[in-house]
Amino acid sequence: MQSLTRAAWLAKIEQVSAALGIDGDDPATWRQALVRAWTLLPLAPVTVQGAYGTLPEADIVAAGDAAYAIGGVAPGALDLSGCGSDAERLTGLGGWLRAAERKIAEMDTGRPVRDPNEDWHHEADGEGFFLVPVPRSAWRPAYLPGALPRPFTRRALLRFRIIPEVIRGLPVHFTVHPRVGLEDAAMSFGASLFADFDVLPEDEADERHFLAREAVGPTPEIVRADIVEAARSGCFAHVFPELTLMPEKREVVPATLAAAAWNRAGEAVPGPDLVVAGTWHERYGEDAWNEAVVYGAAGEELLRFRKLFPYRDEKGRHERIELGEVLEILVTRRGLYGFGVCLDFCQKATPVLTELDVDWMIIPSCGDWRTMRDHLSAAHQLQVSFDTRSFVVQQVYPKRDDGGLGFVLAAPERVVERTEAELVVSQSFSVYPILT
């Protein structure tokens, strides 16, 4: 959303406060009101947004308790007219949002979600938003005294997250994972990399563009072995890098999952909840996309996502691809997963994925240390904004002299400066404990 001038923002507060239209016994009106009131934060001038990060959590908690108590069993009306400073307005607004989400959580006893693209969708002033409930077991903790400042994107709401329907012109689309059940305490991710890797172009003589014809290095035997090892290692997710799995090799993934090829007689070990089967330059008629396929534990196709920004190689040639137009989110029992391909995440000129509020960001990539260094920067921004953890699996290209096959950023809880030596990976298959 485009921030308003301060005068326009103050007028907007009055307008929104007077038009929330809440029926105290109707949770649908509460959800609508929560979304509309929340929009006052991204609409605020950037200096006011920054000030929210400095508010003491104790003040927001107290304002929330007061707002809830005024209404007896529900928050009273949003009224910031008596506030004399921006800090008072933000504290009052933050408290009301906390009280309203508490009311919704108490009224909402677990509505079944048929289609989140419809069930979570709300309109506010002509713009669409998704009000996404956070599972009770994962409610965001209150802001701890003495901790570093956190922006409104991380602490305005503790029981819900609000995601714009469109981010920088790209619509957001949800897919619900079919596997349900209680969370496990631990979670691991797996990564595949390939020795002697190369990508052969379709037309060597084309000096302006390139399109992949063949990936050298991956074999059906290696792909199958890695899926088997990921399952036996208890991986929740496994990721193959960008431009590594041609269609005939990619098909090994769902076939191995469907056959549960890792199980010995009498065993029933489940496969990974999701496998990102690399990406490839997929042809559809005369056009091509850099496209990834995500499979579920039984080999079912869950979704596809397409690269948003074309890569330019060291010779100045661009990928001859059409560009993706959707931001895909997978709803799983372990939170929301967002996806992107290499440059979608690491380029800085027109960032998109760093504005997507998800729990986990999965990035198949291909490139050198400079590429991974920019992934680190993007992962840090996403962690600061939304507490997102990013898992980047990058095939090294061109080939390194030291035997390194690629880089893996293993979804760290806190993104800090890392050296090239710390992130380079020399083994073709690796597993990373993410939650222990």
Automatic annotation (TrEMBL):
InterPro entries: C-N_Hydrolase_sf (IPR036526). This is CN hydrolase domain-containing protein.
